[in-house]
Each structure stands twice: as structure tokens, then as C-alpha cells.
Amino acid sequence: MTATDFALRTHGVGKRYRKGWALRDCTLSLPTGGVIALVGPNGAGKTTLLRLVVGLLAPSTGTVEVLGRDVTASTPQTLSRVGFLAQDHPLYKRFTVAEMLRFGRACNLRFDQGLAERRLAKLGIP
Questions:
Q1: Which of 65, 54, 84 is nearest to 26 (CA)?
Q2: Of 63, 77, 80, residue with least CA distance to 29
Q3: pTM over 0.85, yes/no
Q4: CA of 84: how far to CAs of 26, 47, 50, 80, 124, in Å?
Q5: What SS3 state is found at 101?
Q6: Residue 2 confidence (pLDDT)
Q7: What are phi and psi of 69, to 5 degrees?
Q8: I want to staple 8 with a disulfide (CB 3.0 to 4.6 A). Which of 30, 48, 79, 104 is the partner?
Q9: Tell me: domain 3-74, CATH 3.40.50.300, correct?
Q10: What distance in Å separates the CA atoms of residue 15 and residue 23, rounded to the nearest whole number?
């Protein structure tokens, strides 16, 4: 298999904060075309791993590749193929609806403005 045959690959990845390691020595390879669940107890590092995968955090050690590219060098084209919804509140509290849509368009090359507007209208959100 080649590097691009994997949706996600990590090698020895870890994230350290002042108090200690949130994730340590994580090595995995997830092939493209599959559905995979990430499960574990609270504090196991699941959210930290996902934040590393989408580039919201930089690893303290190791490497993370998404679709064959190091996440620290990922392009908008690569990251636009990855979906991530954090468990915390995903919206910016001070953004208006229009600002949130503008932000979505700027961050996602495949953003569907029409779909977003139809959903807002269906929900009665001006």
C-alpha cells in the first residue's frame, strides 16, 4: 500500500501539556474507504488525536498524515476532505449567522452556500 491508500496515519504521535501527556506514542494506520470508530474512556486522548488530525493542535512528538500529507503542511484542498465536529460548542459566540456562513465558505472549498441557506430557512433562522 502507498501513503495515499491511507486516510490517516500516525507514527509515535504525542501531545504534551504542562501537567503531562494528553496523548502518547500513538501509532495507527487507517485505510481509505472504511468506517472506523474511535472509542475509549474519558481522558484517553480521543479528542486530542482528532484535533491533531485536523491541525488544530501541533504534535509534541511524532507525525500525523492525512491522505498522504503531513498535517503541518496540509493544504486547504486536503483539509477540505476532512470533517470534524468537536464535542464542545462549535460556533463562535460573537459571529452572526452571515459571518458564520462566510467563515464556512472561507474554510471549506466544498461549502454549499445554497444548502446552508435552505437549512437555515427550514429551521426558521434568519
A1: 65
A2: 63
A3: no
A4: 19, 10, 8, 10, 25
A5: helix
A6: 66
A7: -120, 140
A8: 30
A9: yes
A10: 5
